[in-house]
Amino acid sequence: MNRFRKPLKRSIFIGSMIFILVLCLFLNILTYSNFRKALYSSYEERITDILVYVHSHIDLDDLSHCVDTLEESEKYKELMTLMDDVVEQFNIHYLYIITPLNGNETDNMLIVLSATTEYEREYHIDEEIVLGYICHDDYSAEMAQAHLNAMNKDEISFQEERSSWGDDYTGFLPLIDSKGKHFALLCVDIDIAEIHDAIQTYTTANVGLIAALGVLFMVLLQLWLNENIITPLTNLEKSVSLFAEIAHDQTDPTKLWLDVPPIHTQNEVEGLYNAISQMSQDMHSYVMNITNMEEKVSNLKTQVNYMDMLAYQDSLTKVKNKAWYDKTSQRVNEEIEEGTAEFAIIMADLNYLKKINDTYGHERGNEYIFGACKEMCQIFSHSPIFRIGGDEFVILLEKLDYMNRNTLLAQIELVFGDSANNTSKEPWQRYSVALGMAIYAPETDKTIEDVFKRADKTMYENKILMKAARE
């Protein structure tokens, strides 16, 4: 019969169960929060990259005029083509430009431009959604107000949206013309069903794992307590109670005997300490595993960024490659169109590379390329250098290096002249380079390619002169 209101066995069981449940709940909340934050951060970075890329190709004043007149311009059509390509390439849900009209339930949104996929164009899906189309009941008053608030900002904002089109994570970039007018929103929708699925899967697995560990720890702890604390103390209590009953009004001293089973206190305390330490270590190991999972997610993001960097880097010289030059050319051409371009190009072509390869081998030829490139990097430390061919390099001079272009050109010619004539060095260490520089002229040059051709022509002429001087 139970003689106590709060038996030690029940109290320890309830206390240990509550402790493990609270700990499991805390770990679940912590890991869920960190995992969700990491996923959404990666989506925000992806959305931001797309918004910035598309925004860089928008003529804001022209588009603002299109919104005012509801008439498509040539630049509007070019932008439409670009946005259609972006939707196809980046596998996003929607890419569109809209102008919030009001915060009402209906007629609250004006469509400026909505990108479509090849499939949608082929089957004429949403073909009526064109410039000037007004959405009647597609946006709730709450969504319309959220778009109005986003358009009045000066930065990118994000919002999770649930609509008839699905669950999306949306990035808003306000479009502002040269007069400071906020006239539209550039929006990117990414389907987040996979985020919800990932979070649900992760949370289910995490809850199951923590619950299993919790139950395991609770069972093991209860067994250990029964064996090392509860049973010995129960036996002791029974022995003491029996002794008290016998000792009451007992007159026979021989019967005043406390029969206590052997109890080794030091071993029990040490065992309890070891069990708690082991449980603590197991819990720590689990938390460390969760932390390692977050670190792996971060490492995956780092690897993606590293792969992006390698895609635009020359493997031998570590300078930018032809792909990055083409990308940079797009940016420079945009500045030429805007009338803000100011730059010069230096073409550099290595001399004797074929002779060194044929005479001393390609390994020495690579040393020759790397060493010559290193000299250029040291002098043009503030300018991008591109390796566009086996022995051809392009140097784009802007800002400070553009202002000091003549000094830098004279310096590099002197460096390569001294190197080529230094007979104390090995042949593959005597760097000889033909150089040609051309300066962007707004009145004649339409694209960066025009400047490139003049620099290449000058370099070729200098190469002929150098060859004639050697002969």
TrEMBL record:
Q: Which residues cross the membrane?
A: 12-32
**By its UniProt entry, which CDD domains does this protein fall under?**
GGDEF (cd01949)
Domain of life the protein comes from: Bacteria
Q: Which InterPro entries match?
A: Diguanylate_Cyclase, GGDEF_dom, Nucleotide_cyclase, Rev_trsase/Diguanyl_cyclase
Q: Which Gene3D superfamilies match?
A: 3.30.70.270, 6.10.340.10
Pfam families the UniProt entry points to: GGDEF
Q: Membrane among the record's keywords?
A: yes
- The UniProt record lists the GGDEF domain at 341-471
For this protein, the record's PANTHER family field holds: DIGUANYLATE CYCLASE DGCM-RELATED (PTHR45138:SF9), REGULATORY COMPONENTS OF SENSORY TRANSDUCTION SYSTEM (PTHR45138)
What is the recorded name of this protein? Answer: Diguanylate cyclase (GGDEF) domain-containing protein
Organism whose genome encodes this protein = Pseudobutyrivibrio xylanivorans
